[in-house]
Design brief:
With 159 residues, this protein is an alpha/beta fold. It has one domain: 3-Layer(aba) Sandwich (Rossmann fold), CATH 3.40.50. 51% of the residues lie in helices and 9% in strands. It has 8 helices and 5 strands. It has a 5-stranded parallel β-sheet with strand order 3-2-1-4-5. Helix 1 runs parallel beside helix 3. The longest helix has 14 residues. The chain is globular, with a radius of gyration of 16 Å.
Protein backbone atom coordinates (compact mmCIF):
# COMPACT_ATOMS: atom_id res chain seq x y z
CA UNK A 1 0.00 0.00 0.00
CA UNK A 2 1.10 3.54 -0.74
CA UNK A 3 0.00 6.74 0.90
CA UNK A 4 0.13 10.24 -0.53
CA UNK A 5 1.89 13.30 0.76
CA UNK A 6 0.09 16.44 -0.39
CA UNK A 7 3.09 17.35 -2.55
CA UNK A 8 2.69 14.25 -4.74
CA UNK A 9 -0.99 14.46 -5.52
CA UNK A 10 -0.80 18.23 -6.07
CA UNK A 11 2.20 17.67 -8.36
CA UNK A 12 0.17 15.10 -10.31
CA UNK A 13 -2.92 17.35 -10.43
CA UNK A 14 -0.90 20.32 -11.69
CA UNK A 15 1.30 18.44 -14.19
CA UNK A 16 -1.02 15.74 -15.57
CA UNK A 17 -4.40 17.44 -16.08
CA UNK A 18 -7.31 15.03 -15.99
CA UNK A 19 -8.65 16.21 -19.36
CA UNK A 20 -5.34 15.42 -21.09
CA UNK A 21 -4.43 12.32 -19.07
CA UNK A 22 -7.78 10.58 -18.43
CA UNK A 23 -6.18 7.11 -18.43
CA UNK A 24 -3.85 8.08 -15.61
CA UNK A 25 -6.71 9.39 -13.49
CA UNK A 26 -8.86 6.32 -14.21
CA UNK A 27 -5.94 4.13 -13.07
CA UNK A 28 -5.43 6.26 -9.95
CA UNK A 29 -9.11 5.97 -9.10
CA UNK A 30 -8.80 2.16 -9.43
CA UNK A 31 -5.75 2.21 -7.14
CA UNK A 32 -7.75 4.28 -4.66
CA UNK A 33 -10.82 2.04 -4.97
CA UNK A 34 -8.76 -1.06 -4.19
CA UNK A 35 -7.14 0.76 -1.22
CA UNK A 36 -3.70 0.44 -2.82
CA UNK A 37 -3.42 4.23 -2.64
CA UNK A 38 -4.47 6.11 0.50
CA UNK A 39 -3.89 9.51 2.07
CA UNK A 40 -3.17 10.59 5.65
CA UNK A 41 -5.84 12.90 7.06
CA UNK A 42 -3.21 15.61 7.56
CA UNK A 43 -2.20 15.45 3.88
CA UNK A 44 -5.84 15.56 2.73
CA UNK A 45 -6.35 18.73 4.78
CA UNK A 46 -3.31 20.26 3.06
CA UNK A 47 -4.61 19.28 -0.39
CA UNK A 48 -8.03 20.78 0.32
CA UNK A 49 -6.37 24.04 1.41
CA UNK A 50 -3.80 24.28 -1.42
CA UNK A 51 -5.66 22.68 -4.33
CA UNK A 52 -9.38 22.49 -3.56
CA UNK A 53 -10.31 20.94 -6.91
CA UNK A 54 -7.81 18.12 -6.33
CA UNK A 55 -9.22 17.58 -2.84
CA UNK A 56 -12.72 17.41 -4.25
CA UNK A 57 -11.55 14.80 -6.79
CA UNK A 58 -9.95 12.71 -4.01
CA UNK A 59 -13.14 12.84 -1.96
CA UNK A 60 -15.22 12.07 -5.06
CA UNK A 61 -13.31 8.82 -5.66
CA UNK A 62 -13.67 7.98 -1.95
CA UNK A 63 -10.00 7.81 -1.09
CA UNK A 64 -9.28 5.86 2.08
CA UNK A 65 -8.08 8.29 4.74
CA UNK A 66 -5.48 7.20 7.28
CA UNK A 67 -6.35 8.99 10.49
CA UNK A 68 -4.01 9.98 13.25
CA UNK A 69 -3.91 7.78 16.30
CA UNK A 70 -2.31 7.91 19.71
CA UNK A 71 0.46 5.69 18.30
CA UNK A 72 1.11 7.95 15.30
CA UNK A 73 1.14 11.07 17.50
CA UNK A 74 3.60 9.39 19.88
CA UNK A 75 5.79 8.40 16.94
CA UNK A 76 5.61 11.94 15.53
CA UNK A 77 6.82 13.24 18.90
CA UNK A 78 9.71 10.75 18.85
CA UNK A 79 10.67 11.79 15.31
CA UNK A 80 10.55 15.47 16.27
CA UNK A 81 12.79 14.73 19.24
CA UNK A 82 15.29 12.80 17.11
CA UNK A 83 15.44 15.76 14.69
CA UNK A 84 16.15 18.13 17.56
CA UNK A 85 12.87 20.04 17.38
CA UNK A 86 12.44 21.98 20.61
CA UNK A 87 9.44 24.06 21.61
CA UNK A 88 7.90 23.52 18.16
CA UNK A 89 10.79 25.31 16.46
CA UNK A 90 11.64 23.65 13.15
CA UNK A 91 14.46 24.51 10.76
CA UNK A 92 14.28 24.67 6.97
CA UNK A 93 13.34 21.02 6.62
CA UNK A 94 10.20 19.16 7.61
CA UNK A 95 7.45 20.86 9.55
CA UNK A 96 4.93 19.48 12.02
CA UNK A 97 2.47 18.22 9.38
CA UNK A 98 5.28 16.47 7.49
CA UNK A 99 6.37 14.61 10.62
CA UNK A 100 2.75 13.62 11.34
CA UNK A 101 2.37 12.31 7.75
CA UNK A 102 5.59 10.29 8.04
CA UNK A 103 4.42 8.84 11.36
CA UNK A 104 1.03 7.86 9.93
CA UNK A 105 2.75 6.18 6.95
CA UNK A 106 5.05 4.24 9.29
CA UNK A 107 2.20 3.06 11.53
CA UNK A 108 0.23 1.96 8.43
CA UNK A 109 3.34 0.25 7.01
CA UNK A 110 2.74 2.25 3.84
CA UNK A 111 5.18 3.53 1.27
CA UNK A 112 5.03 7.33 1.14
CA UNK A 113 4.63 9.11 -2.19
CA UNK A 114 6.26 12.50 -1.80
CA UNK A 115 7.50 15.04 -4.27
CA UNK A 116 9.60 16.94 -1.80
CA UNK A 117 13.06 17.17 -3.27
CA UNK A 118 15.76 14.75 -2.22
CA UNK A 119 18.89 16.22 -0.70
CA UNK A 120 21.96 14.60 -2.27
CA UNK A 121 24.25 16.37 0.18
CA UNK A 122 22.44 16.15 3.49
CA UNK A 123 22.53 19.25 5.67
CA UNK A 124 24.59 19.09 8.86
CA UNK A 125 21.53 19.88 10.97
CA UNK A 126 18.72 17.32 11.10
CA UNK A 127 16.37 20.29 11.45
CA UNK A 128 16.98 20.98 7.75
CA UNK A 129 16.12 17.48 6.54
CA UNK A 130 13.26 17.25 4.02
CA UNK A 131 10.73 14.39 3.99
CA UNK A 132 12.86 11.90 1.98
CA UNK A 133 15.86 12.39 4.28
CA UNK A 134 13.73 12.00 7.41
CA UNK A 135 12.13 8.85 5.99
CA UNK A 136 15.64 7.46 5.35
CA UNK A 137 16.76 7.92 8.94
CA UNK A 138 17.47 4.55 10.54
CA UNK A 139 15.17 5.42 13.46
CA UNK A 140 12.31 6.24 11.04
CA UNK A 141 12.65 3.82 8.13
CA UNK A 142 9.73 4.74 5.87
CA UNK A 143 9.99 3.71 2.22
CA UNK A 144 9.25 6.56 -0.18
CA UNK A 145 9.16 7.45 -3.85
CA UNK A 146 8.06 10.32 -6.07
CA UNK A 147 4.86 10.34 -8.09
CA UNK A 148 6.81 9.88 -11.33
CA UNK A 149 8.73 6.94 -9.83
CA UNK A 150 5.38 5.46 -8.77
CA UNK A 151 4.05 5.70 -12.35
CA UNK A 152 7.22 4.25 -13.85
CA UNK A 153 7.29 1.37 -11.40
CA UNK A 154 3.67 0.51 -12.19
CA UNK A 155 4.60 -0.13 -15.86
CA UNK A 156 1.10 1.02 -16.73
CA UNK A 157 0.47 2.42 -20.18
CA UNK A 158 -2.03 5.25 -20.20
CA UNK A 159 -4.06 5.87 -23.31
Amino acid sequence: MQTLDASSIIYAWDNYPELQFPGLWRWLSLQIGSVQLTIPSVALEEVLAKSPSCGVWLKGVSISVLNESVRSLQLATQIQSSLGVKDGKYGNGVKSNDVRIIAIAKIANAELLTDERTQPGLPKSLLNYKIPAVCDLKSVGVAHLSFLEYIKRSKQIFV
